[in-house]
């Protein structure tokens, strides 16, 4: 793969860093970003998967270190100040940094230097699906034409790729396969979000426990959104497993809302889509993303009187939570129905005690 002149315009050092805390909270994510900002002010938060892009280009000369040294300093600070391990990937472009980070285990870092031969050695042997923008479906399409690796994409004539993928997608894939990606890191604050999580006291394999817990989280998130006068445009469900790996899925809501039944329905789809079955789950976290003021809500007209009743019931439950405590009542589906084995072993409901239960969302 011969580098084009475009790849030599300027030397950049882009970092993609993933945080791996034992428990995820909004406050902790903000604190981690503050540590990163202490190294470089050019930080692009990605709260959905607890990661961020960082442009280290200017910071290298300021700190008098190379990319490997500066990434090591950042990882050490995160561990020392907050006890959080991270996986980091760095390279001359966003796509190379992302690929390097994806290939790196927690507690380690992969750095691809801005050298055409090192870039080629890193990219060419990777499967096509590892290239940002190439999903499983596109990778299968390419495989039917014998294009299986990133190197194959780079070696394929652009006109051929355009016939397979279309003009824009082909140009993007070909450029990134050749190590070209001029997208900048866009500094900014993390999009406003709100999250709730639950950590099991053992590796939980029971799908019913998974189901009741995430519905309880949807109720909690909905209540907190209504209390703060906000609505969510998307939900993200993160599952942490016994081996400390994680899976994250995000779904955009049909309409921005803080209505618990709508949040619960989307949360249920996220959980079902993960196909956990007998997975050994340790932590479940639900995050409401891209929050807006509640007055911006647009509610579709409906002839279903049940929806109006649920809104009135929801208002009554919010009053009960304010007067007594959060979680005093909730949907029946959010209650775990303990079986005989659970009662013998003393296992309790995952979402804590409630006094009132009513029909499931």
TrEMBL record:
Positions of the UniProt region annotated as Disordered: 339-361
One Pfam family this sequence matches: IMS_C
Tagged with keyword DNA damage: yes
InterPro entries linked to this entry: DNA/RNA_pol_sf (IPR043502), DNA_pol_Y-fam_lit_finger_sf (IPR036775), DNA_pol_Y-fam_little_finger (IPR017961), IMS_HHH_1 (IPR053848), Rev_trsase/Diguanyl_cyclase (IPR043128), SulA_CellDiv_inhibitor (IPR050356), UmuC (IPR001126)
UmuC domain ranges (all copies): 31-135
The UniProt record lists the keyword Isomerase: no
PROSITE patterns: UMUC
Keywords tagged on the record: DNA damage
Listed SUPFAM superfamilies: DNA/RNA polymerases, Lesion bypass DNA polymerase (Y-family), little finger domain
Family: Belongs to the DNA polymerase type-Y family.
Task of the protein: Poorly processive, error-prone DNA polymerase involved in untargeted mutagenesis. Copies undamaged DNA at stalled replication forks, which arise in vivo from mismatched or misaligned primer ends. These misaligned primers can be extended by PolIV. Exhibits no 3'-5' exonuclease (proofreading) activity. May be involved in translesional synthesis, in conjunction with the beta clamp from PolIII.
PANTHER family per record: BLR3025 PROTEIN (PTHR35369:SF2), BLR3025 PROTEIN-RELATED (PTHR35369)
Name this polypeptide is given: Helix-hairpin-helix domain-containing protein
Species of provenance: Streptomyces stephensoniae
């Amino acid at each position: 793969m011969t580098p084009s002149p475009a790849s030599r315009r300027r030397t950049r050092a882009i970092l993609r860093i993933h945080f791996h805390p034992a428990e995820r909270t909004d406050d902790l994510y903000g604190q981690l970003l503050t540590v990163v900002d202490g190294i470089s002010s050019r930080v692009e938060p990605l709260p959905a998967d607890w990661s961020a892009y960082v442009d280290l280009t200017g910071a290298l000369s300021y700190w008098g270190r190379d990319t490997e040294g500066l990434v090591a300093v950042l990882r050490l600070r995160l561990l020392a100040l907050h006890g959080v391990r991270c996986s980091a990937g760095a390279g001359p472009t966003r796509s190379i940094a992302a690929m390097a980070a994806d290939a790196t285990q927690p507690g380690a870092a992969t750095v691809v230097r801005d050298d055409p031969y090192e870039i080629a050695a890193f990219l060419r042997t990777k499967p096509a699906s590892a290239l940002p923008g190439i999903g499983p479906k596109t990778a299968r399409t390419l495989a039917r034409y014998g294009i299986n690796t990133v190197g194959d994409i780079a070696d394929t004539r652009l006109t051929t790729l355009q016939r397979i993928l279309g003009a824009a997608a082909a140009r993007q894939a070909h450029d990134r396969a050749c190590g070209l990606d001029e997208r900048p890191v866009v500094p900014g604050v993390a999009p406003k979000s709100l999250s709730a999580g639950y950590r099991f006291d053992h590796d939980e394999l029971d799908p019913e426990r998974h189901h009741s817990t995430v519905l309880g989280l949807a109720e909690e998130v909905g209540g907190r959104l209504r209390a703060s006068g906000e609505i969510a445009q998307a939900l993200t469900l993160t599952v942490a497993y016994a081996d400390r790996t994680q899976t994250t899925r995000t779904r955009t809501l049909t309409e921005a809302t803080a209505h618990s039944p709508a949040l619960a329905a989307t949360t249920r789809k996220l959980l079902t889509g993960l196909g956990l079955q007998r997975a050994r789950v340790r932590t479940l976290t639900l995050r409401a993303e891209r929050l807006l003021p509640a007055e911006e809500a647009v509610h579709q007209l409906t002839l279903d009187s049940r929806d109006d009743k649920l809104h009135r019931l929801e208002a009554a439950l919010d009053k009960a939570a304010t007067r007594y405590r959060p979680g005093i009542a909730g949907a029946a589906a959010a209650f775990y129905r303990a079986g005989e084995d659970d009662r013998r072993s003393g296992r309790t409901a995952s979402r804590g005690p409630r006094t009132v239960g009513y029909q499931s969302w």
